Structure formats: C-alpha cells, structure tokens
Amino acid sequence: MNNILAVNQLNKSFGKKHVLQDVSFTVAPGEVVGLIGPNGAGKTTVMKAILGLFPWESGQIAINQQPVTVSSHQVLDDVGALIEYPGIYPFLTGYQHLELFATGKDKQQRIDQVIEQLKVGSYIQRKAKSYSLGMKQKLGIALALLNHPQLVILDEPMNGLDPQATRDLRDLIMTLAKQGTSFLISSHILSELEKIVQEVVIIDQGKIIKQASINDLAATGHSFILLKTDDNSRAQQVLTKAGYQAELSGEQLKLEQKDEKELAQVIQVLTEQQLNILDVQHQHNDLEASLLDLLKKDQSQQVKE
Ligand SMILES: Nc1ncnc2c1ncn2[C@@H]1O[C@H](COP(=O)(O)OP(=O)(O)OP(=O)(O)O)[C@@H](O)[C@H]1O
C-alpha cells in the first residue's frame, strides 16, 4: 500500500543550528503515528516542513506521492493541521471561524458534524476572545478536521484539554482512523498517545532514533515485580544476598523480572527466611521507561561520537 506521507532524508538548519538531520519516516493510510521526543527535539519543525512552511536544505517530502515544497502546496488540500497555537481571531465567534474555513458543497454538514464531534456546541456562538485555553484548542482541532482531510497533523493536541476532553479526542481520532484518516501526532509524553498510536517515530536532537510499532516498542520494555512484605528492609537484604537487585520504592520492593521463573524463585527465597509476602504485583511493558532508555542510549552514543 502506498504511504500517505513519506519524509525522506530531510535536513534543516536555522542559522548554524542543524535542527533536522536526515529525518526519514512514513505514515500509511488509516495509521495513527506518534512523533515522540523531548522538548526541542525537532517535532514542530518536522511538522512545519510537511506543511511547506519554510524551505529546507535537502531531502524530500511527499503526500500521496506528490512532492511538497515551499512553492507547491496543492497536495496540502488533503491535509488538516494544528501546529503550536491555533490561529484564532479573537473578535470572531467559533462558528464564524468554521464558516470561514469550510469548503465543499456540504459545507453546512461539515460544520455541524465537527461541532458535534468536538462537543463545542455550548460556546461555539461566543466570541473566541472569551475562550479558555482548552476551548481554543478544541476549536483548533475542529478546524483541522473540518474538511475531512486524508492526513491530519496535530502538534501536542492534548495541551490544555481536561481528562474528559482528552479521552473524547482519543476516541474521535480512533473512530476517524478506522474510517481511513491518517494522523501524525506529536507529544513529549508517550503514555498520552500509547492508547491510540500503532506506530511511533522517536526523534531526539533532530535525528530519528527509531520508527517502530507500539507492540515492538512494548516488547523492548522492562517487566518488574513489586512486592510488599512484612519487613521490606530485611527482605531487601535477603534478596541482595541471593543475587537479586531489589530497590525500595515507597511501601514496595521493586525488582526487574528477567525471566518468567523469577517470581517463583523470589517467593521461595523470601519464605525460606520466614518473610511474609503481603502483596505481589507485576508491572509490564513500561513504555515510558523503554522510551527513556532509547533516549539515554542515543545521548551516550552522541557523547562517544
Ligand atoms: N524559527 C527558528 N529559528 C531558530 N531556531 C529554531 C526555530 N524554530 C525552531 N528552532 C530550534 O529548533 C530546535 C527544534 O525545535 P522544535 O520546536 O521543532 O522542537 P520540538 O520537538 O517541537 O520541541 P517542543 O516539544 O518543546 O515543542 C530547537 O532547538 C529550537 O530552538
């Protein structure tokens, strides 16, 4: 299947600062891809380049196999985007914004649909200057989705949204993706996106350090055993003596589980020393931890280079 978006060997500098270095990744139709990286990694710059907002030194960007450049924007008709802050006119109502940007014969239907999808009906007739941060954010997302684009680019879309609105947005993204819309969504928090993305592109200091499915990334994650005993500090000593590295974490002892048999062995070691186990929990697939691991490895690699 052809990719809806292909970024190939993109290089971009601002002055002397090489902000994107050979950035390559793809987005397939109907796929939700997370662009994840720490502050300043280059996420917004990648997104702005895809929208042809500035020139770059080398590399190609194609949407539906058509090149995007600063002077050729036609392919962007099929792209909806919210980058950084929504561009909102304070003296227009939310509804007037939608009227201004809606296209097509079914304009009215599109406006009504997006008002319902984003649940903005109660304030859409008010002037935008009275909107809270979250309300503005929802209007920005409504504008990105309004004309049923094939590809939607959202830069930190959960910014300013309360937990209910965050959940509603996740549900909406998943529904639209099932209907074939592709999404590229940036965040510096992986856990915020892990429920909706199939694929993650991890960027650090302008370089893509990994593009992987969320399942592959989870498989590289760590597993931990969390134990509560009637004497955690003695249990820690007993485990250390037996060759396990257990750290005290609040009311629990936390140790990395390297293989499946380990839990039974740990329990045996403790019960042999008359320690009572009050609670056992498993912590699996800590995606945030595996992301941090990747970033740490990348940074130590760069120090060596
Ligand atoms: N117009 C510009 N002029 C100069 N430097 C810029 C410009 N835009 C971005 N940069 C620099 O490029 C780097 C990447 O910035 P970018 O905004 O793409 O990061 P980000 O991953 O989106 O970060 P955040 O999560 O903080 O939004 C940063 O070092 C930033 O200072």
TrEMBL record:
Full protein name: ABC transporter-like protein
Give the source's domain of life in one word. Bacteria
Record-linked InterPro entries? AAA+_ATPase, ABC_transporter-like_ATP-bd, ABC_transporter-like_CS, P-loop_NTPase
Limits of the ABC transporter domain? 5-230
Q: Which family would the database say this protein is a member of?
A: Belongs to the ABC transporter superfamily.
Q: Which SUPFAM superfamilies match?
A: P-loop containing nucleoside triphosphate hydrolases (SSF52540)
UniProt xrefs under Gene3D superfamilies: P-loop containing nucleotide triphosphate hydrolases (3.40.50.300)
Q: Which UniProt keywords apply?
A: ATP-binding, Nucleotide-binding, Transport
Give one GO term, molecular function aspect.
ATP binding
Q: Which residues form a coiled coil?
A: none
PROSITE patterns per UniProt: ABC_TRANSPORTER_1, ABC_TRANSPORTER_2
Q: What is the lineage of its organism?
A: Bacteria, Bacillati, Bacillota, Bacilli, Lactobacillales
Q: Which Pfam families match?
A: ABC_tran (PF00005)
The protein's matches in SMART domains, at most eight in alphabetical order, are given as: AAA
- Mind telling me which PANTHER family this protein's record contains? ABC TRANSPORTER, ATP-BINDING PROTEIN
